[in-house]
TrEMBL record:
GO MF, any single term: alanyl aminopeptidase activity
Cited Pfam families: DUF3458 (PF11940), DUF3458_C (PF17432), Peptidase_M1 (PF01433), Peptidase_M1_N (PF17900)
Highest taxon listed in the record's lineage: Bacteria
Keyword Protease: yes
Protein name stated in the entry: Aminopeptidase N
Domain (Aminopeptidase N-like N-terminal) ranges: 112-192
Species: Alkalimarinus alittae
Length: 885
């Protein structure tokens, strides 16, 4: 960064907006050379503003001002000033009409913010601060306005013209152009503004709300995608129904629109009445989309829909409050997915993500609280901490209050703050007021970064029939601080007898035995706290932090035998899976140790037996089993280590997998056969998904170990699969095997078959880039010159560069340092094209802490190289400068 360092924004500096905008009337003229935007803003001095200024300062980036007038009178030169960051109108009245005309160049935008072109269509992305790239405005979420938008464009090229709210007028204009006018009756911040123009076709559906209102549902796609809308529309209807049933929230406009675009920085965007989706998060049909894509679509459609209440009707006061809408909405979509599918599996997937990626973020250089206190670039704070930990925090409130009081709290929150821009404190206050539960200490979760660590100690006194549990907590980010205070942690707990049955939990002698609960949410509020349970007849096994009731690390106190017991007997599905993960991780870790010391390697036979037990079990739920069959990922093993040796971890994990393949071949083949359906129609229900997952895991384990019977099965599955889940699973198994010629021919066949479908090509790219076998850096670099690659398209960048650097760890971390250099080269390239993507991509280079000095030095060298670039974006500058030691 050669210029002055970018400015840091602080929460403590928040001030109410000095002006408000009651009405926003926009007029867009879309052309092939650019777009003209005329705005008419009804501006008024904010009576509540702390600070009064005579000037009006508006945000604006890369705008060409054509004209400006107040109350119909053009301003002369001394009455306004255009700056890098916007526009200042000098000496304004208390109320006035501001008219601006600006010229923008959507065709030249590669950062995919503001109004831009994606293939043949115009579309917008305004969150967080993209609206200022469209016109001069008070681009902040606490300025809410009623929008009327008129779009004019060539009728043949852009027959469809969309914006928020209801269509109120349309007509033809001269020289082949037409216009459509939209009115949004709800006040909203400008980050929820959207516009789409294109040659799209619509797939329509309808939903009747609980109160009997008819809502048109309309999905707009490019013509070739018309058969990929069904799943999103049915997910949408299920979400609308769920939000009525579970939160009592109905949709509030007569039309709800979804548009799919190919070039998009994130998954999707909740613009009022006009959600815009990344194609890869909304388009699906059985032969092109995998089960995990089906589930991702269901979750994201729900997420964006749920924002209509948690985000749009009640929005954020400022961007420090981002988790107010994101954490709450992720909690809502996770509950929805849990209700639609297997609750246990959903929990396992979410915790896996949290424990690997969010924990790593929380102990890395960009660590921040759920409500950050400062940032340089807000786009860098759309993080796992804001989204996933934020959802955990809401989930803890849910656990502490229980279903009923939580609902009372959310009702009060929506009622009290409808139409307002509020803070996370307002959310917690509503929960507290409705429930009567004191959440003062709980609020710490919003303000303190880092992952708390819980030490568990327990004793059983047979004589006294007393079980004593002692929990102590600490948090690495505040350890030793003078004001270090404990968190309020809901710690879900049970005791299991030797048959795996839950034991009644009696904390006071006067409790009635028969009514004693067998599971408790303990309020763990002290630094160290003891809980006693009476009338425990035999030594029990404790079941700790059931369902992962808080986003913390629990130090493992279990022996391998206890873990085996829990893996077979735990009644909490999540904990049962977790016991298996802990046991496998422990075994992989000791093999890795032996590997580093050149000792003989062997796999604890107890693990093989445990897996055999699972595979032959008649009673275990298949959805749970499908997750239990997956070994802990390399990322998770790295997260567990103090200093990770990636070669040792990779080798040890592969040895365990190969041993399972060898010792359990018969059971795995049987699992494959029993879960294979021939000729059945594809269904994305969770049972079918679990069975496909089981079958494909079995195939993968066997083929990775080089089993030749598995090769025959995989090749057969590859050519005869009738859905993308099975087809790509066979390809993945082949690509990760040592059967080189089969692998190459499968890759070629697959590409020839699917090259016209971008969503499938993305999978084809990432399968190659994540393969530890073929995924050498050279292959990745070659793919970047392939016709299928386009560095301007974020999905392609994620499928190639992102996949390699995040999921091909053995190759990315190669000691030559070439992987790090490759990433830095591309971050530098993308810094100019798309700063948001560049800044997200750089993450693996900021995770050096887990590796040895040599690798840390190599990573630091690349970070320094990036930082010395001229014209570094604020996005990349913030992440890289904070990561340099
Ligand atoms: N609000 C969006 C969501 O979570 C996130 C989002 C979409 C976004 N596109 C973005 C955030 C671009 C920053 C930049 O649903
Ligand atoms: Zn969101």
């Amino acid at each position: 960064m050669k210029e002055a360092q970018p400015r840091t924004i602080f929460l403590k500096d928040y001030q109410k907006p000095p002006f408000l905008i009651d009405e926003t009337v926009l007029h867009f003229d879309l052309n092939e050379q650019g777009a003209t935007v005329k705005s008419r803003l009804s501006v008024r001095r904010n009576p509540e503003a702390e600070l009064t200024t005579s000037d009006l300062t508006l945000d604006g980036v890369d705008l060409e001002l054509v004209s400006i007038a107040i109350d119909g009178v053009a301003l002369s030169e001394g009455q306004y000033a255009v700056t890098e960051e916007g526009l200042k109108v000098i000496g304004v009245a208390d109320t006035f009409l501001l008219e601006c005309e600006t010229l923008i160049k959507p065709q030249e935008i590669t950062c995919l913010e503001g109004l831009y072109k994606s293939s043949s269509m115009f579309c917008t992305q305004c969150e967080a601060e993209g609206f200022r790239r469209i016109t001069y405005y008070l681009d902040r979420p606490d300025v809410m306005s009623r929008f009327t938008t008129t779009i004019t464009a060539d009728k043949t090229l852009y027959p469809v013209l969309l914006s928020n709210g209801n269509e109120v007028e349309r007509g033809d204009l001269e020289s082949g152009r037409h216009f459509v006018r939209w009115e949004d009756p709800f006040r909203k911040p400008c980050y929820l503004f959207a516009l789409v123009a294109g040659d799209l076709l619509n797939i329509d559906d309808q939903y009747v709300t609980a109160s009997g209102r008819k809502v048109s549902l309309r999905m707009f796609v490019e013509p070739q995608n018309k058969d990929k809308c069904e799943h999103a529309l049915s997910s949408l209807k299920a979400s609308m129904k769920w939000d009525e049933d579970v939160y009592g929230r109905e949709y509030d406009l007569d039309i709800f629109m979804i548009v799919a675009v190919d070039d998009f920085n994130m998954g999707a965007m909740e613009n009022k009445g006009l959600n815009i989706f990344n194609s890869s998060c909304v388009l699906a049909k059985p032969d092109t989309a995998t089960d995990s894509t089906y589930q991702r679509i269901e979750a994201i459609v729900a997420h964006e829909y749920f924002h209509n209440w948690s985000g749009n009707r009640v929005t954020c006061r400022d961007w420090f409050q981002l988790s107010l809408k994101e954490g709450f909405t992720v909690f809502r979509d996770a509950e929805f997915s849990a209700d639609m599918n297997s609750r246990t599996v959903k929990r396992i997937e979410d915790v896996n993500l949290l424990r690997t990626a969010q924990f790593a973020e929380d102990s890395g250089p960009m660590s921040h609280p759920v409500r950050p206190s400062s940032f340089i670039e807000i786009s860098n704070f759309y993080t796992l901490t804001i989204y996933e930990k934020g959802a955990e925090v809401v989930g803890m409130i849910h656990r502490l209050l229980g279903e009923e009081l939580f609902r009372k709290g959310s009702d009060l929150y929506f009622e009290r703050h409808d139409g307002q821009a509020v803070t996370t404190d307002d959310f917690v206050q509503a929960m507290q007021d409705a429930s009567g539960k004191d959440l003062t200490q709980f609020k710490r979760w919003y303000d303190i970064a880092g992952t708390p660590v819980i030490d568990v100690d327990y004793q059983y006194d047979e004589q006294a029939q007393l079980f004593t549990l002692t929990l102590s907590q600490s948090c690495p980010s505040t350890e030793g601080d003078a004001d270090e205070k404990p968190f309020h942690i809901p710690f879900t707990f049970a005791l299991l007898d030797s048959n795996g049955c839950n034991i009644p939990l009696i904390q006071n002698d006067d409790a009635v035995f028969a009514n004693a609960p067998t599971e408790l949410v303990l309020d763990f509020v002290e630094t160290e706290q003891t809980f006693k349970f009476q009338h425990i007849e035999k030594e029990p096994v404790p079941s700790l932090l059931r369902g992962f009731s808080a986003p913390v690390k629990v130090k493992n106190t279990f022996s391998r035998d206890q873990l085996l017991f829990l893996m077979m007997n735990e009644t909490d599905g999540f904990n049962r899976w977790d016991a298996g993960q802990r046991l496998s991780a422990d075994i992989i870790q000791s093999i890795a140790e032996d590997y580093m010391h050149g000792r003989a390697l062997n796999v604890d036979a107890r693990l093989v037996n445990a897996y055999r037990g699972l595979l032959v079990s008649k009673s275990i739920d298949k959805a749970l089993l499908s997750k239990m069959l997956m070994l802990p990922t390399e990322s998770y093993l790295i997260e567990l280590a103090d200093e990770a040796n990636i070669e040792a971890i990779h080798h040890a994990r592969n040895l365990v997998r190969d041993t399972l393949a060898e010792k359990l071949k018969i059971e795995l083949l049987r699992c494959y056969q029993e879960n294979t359906d021939v000729g059945a129609a594809y269904s994305a229900d969770f049972n079918s998904i679990a069975r496909r997952s089981l079958k494909n895991s079995a195939l993968n384990i066997l083929l990775s170990a080089g089993d030749s019977d598995a090769l025959v099965l995989a090749e057969k599955q590859f050519v005869s699969a009738t859905n993308m889940t099975d087809e790509s699973a066979a390809l993945i198994a082949l690509v990760n095997s040592d059967f080189v010629s089969q692998r190459e021919s499968a890759l070629n066949t697959f590409y020839a078959k699917w090259k016209a479908d971008p969503q499938v090509v993305e999978q084809w790219l990432s399968i190659q880039c994540t393969s530890a076998k073929s995924g050498t850096l050279e292959a990745v670099k070659r793919l970047m010159t392939h016709e299928a690659f386009d560095i301007k398209n974020p999905n392609k960048v994620r499928s190639v560069i992102g996949a390699f650097c995040n999921h091909n760890l053995i190759n990315f971390h190669n000691l030559s340092g070439e992987g790090y250099q490759f990433l830095a080269d591309n971050v530098i390239k993308l810094n100019k094209l798309n700063p948001q993507i560049a800044s997200r991509l750089v993450t693996p280079l900021t995770r050096g802490k887990k590796f040895n000095q040599e690798r840390q030095a190599l990573m630091q060298a690349q970070l320094h190289r990036i930082l010395s670039e001229e014209n570094l974006s604020k996005d990349v500058y913030e992440v890289v400068s904070k990561s340099i030691k």
